[in-house]
Amino acid sequence: MPDDVKDQNASKEPSVDDDGKSWEGPLRQLRFQQQLVRSPNTKDRGYVRQKANNKLWVRERLDAFLDQNSFTEVGSITGQPVFDEKTGKLVSFVPANSVTGWGKLDGRKVFVTADDFSVRGGHADGGIMNKPIYGETVARRARVPLIRLLDGSSGGGSVALYLSMGSTYIPQMNILSNSIEALSVIPVVSALLGPVVGLAAAKAAISHFSVMVKDLSQLFAAGPPVVKQATFEDLSKSDLGGWDIHATNGTVDNVASSESDAFQQIRTFLSYLPSSMFSLPPVLPCKDPADRRDEGLFDIIPRRRSRPYDIRKIINAVVDVNVAPDEDGGAVSTFFEIGAYWGRSIVTGLARISGRPIGVLTSDCKVNGGAIDAMGSQKTAKFVNLCNHFGLPILNLVDQPGFAIGSQAERMATIRHGAAAMVAMYNASVPFYTIIIRRAFGVAGCAFADPENGKGIRVAWPSGDWGSLPLEGGIEAAYKRQLDLAGSESPEAREKLMAELLDKFEDVRSPQKTANKFGIEEIIDPRDTRPLVCEWVEHVYGTVLPQLVTYKQATVIGDSVPPGRGYKL
């Protein structure tokens, strides 16, 4: 008998014969099968292995994740019941390795597909292929968020299936087509809760948000045995596809410390998004005053241009804070960072302003000086596409010295990925509120400082510094002959000339000089940032976003987005 057969309760099957008149017999048999499927076989090798790896069983995950008593299962007795040939009694049951159904998160309806790794490691020969496909379809049609709890191959292929089928087969796109279509309509999130391989790895990547658990989950196209046969690399699961690999290359967005932390991150992410692209983002009551002026913003940007600062302090000073104290007794920022481990020169995340969800896009001057590289460009494009698709206006805090340069930057195709980021920002229909807090130089600077091509709201702080090139490097290029001539006399002479040239240009680089010519629309006191952004967000939610939602609703064909207008990863 297979290890994953559930028979610990088979002897307790109710002895109710079907008299052909009442439905009591069939209903009792149904409830017994449901009870059998929903009760763990603690002696099953798959279940024992799950627990030995400090992992929750699939139904424990659903209980821990969803609102209490909110789960309504779909396909509750999907699997392979085994009956006694003589008595007709149920003697064992092999459940499907996917548990699906409706549930609620913070009172909002969602659909969940959860892998059961204890049944054939989640492979297709232990499951019913149509079950997760059906789930992704009905979630899209119902316009509710889709949540995947991935553990194993999520119904992916296993060579053992060939024997039971009596043949091999050509892989069909229908196993992923519904995933791709769902991505274009509803929020799709994935939690990686174990080894995620093959089909499951593709599903993880075909998500708006994904989170993997540190030291518990891994992701790879093929597992260590297949890799060893193909490339002769003898690797552990973590060495092949651990969190430190995929959280730093952008395949996975966030990292969690535990399964419960992963569940909380998904709740937080979804709390900012509408249930579908055809609805407005959810607005919550806000007790943080819209006219709050944070005195710390006054001098947070050092006068000395080479000195760094903490961009996250600026974000937290502007966005809403929850009144309830955190563990340290302070207020909790609503900023939820996405992708902190990859493309680190760019900072992205979701937050609230006056209770209204927004996206936050900026750069981190502590990472490569804030210069945007290939990974940062990919991160920017992905995040802007997310905000644009679900109607989140973007707070754009600009300190962009330009594209990363040098041989490594060229090898990584920085300008190609940078161009994709520029296209994503330019094509976005959601409004930006752009604040130039420090630098805006070159092609990258123009993309971030003017994403709406002169048609959007833009202000600057007194610390603004902009141009076609950073002044120091530009002087080196423009006055190379004179500087080389002075350098031939002595290094001191070269330094003196350079200092004189910098002094000469210092006056014209003042942002006020640009404002005199209306090259920047307004220079503001940094302490006024939150009141101005709050006023903008309230206006956008009242007038602009409803029109965008109406337009989306008017261009829908059936329950799908028109061809060619699907979501761009």
- 3D shape: elongated
Mean pLDDT: 89
Going by helix content, strand content and strand pairing, the class is alpha/beta
DSSP E strands, number: 19
The helix content, as a percent range, equals: 25-40%
State Rg. 28 Å
Question: What percent of residues are in strands?
Answer: 15-25%
Task: Please tally the helical runs, counting DSSP H or I stretches of 4 or more residues.
Answer: 21
Largest sheet: 8 strands, mixed
> Unreliable segments (pLDDT under 50, ≥5 consecutive)?
none
Question: Can you describe this structure in just a few lines?
Answer:
It comes from Candolleomyces eurysporus. With 569 residues, the protein is an alpha/beta fold.
Describe the structure.
- By secondary structure, this protein is an alpha/beta fold.
- 38% of the residues lie in helices and 19% in strands.
- The strands form four sheets. Strands 1, 4, 5, 6, 7, 8, 9 and 10 form an eight-stranded mixed β-sheet that branches. Strands 13, 14, 15, 16, 17, 18 and 19 form a seven-stranded mixed β-sheet that branches. A two-stranded antiparallel ribbon has the order 2-3.
- Strand 2 and strand 3 form a beta hairpin.
- Helix 4 packs parallel to helix 6, helix 17 crosses helix 19 and helix 18 packs antiparallel against helix 19.
- The chain is elongated, with a radius of gyration of 28 Å.
- The two termini are 44 Å apart.
- The relative contact order is 0.07.
- The model has no long low-confidence stretch (mean pLDDT 89).
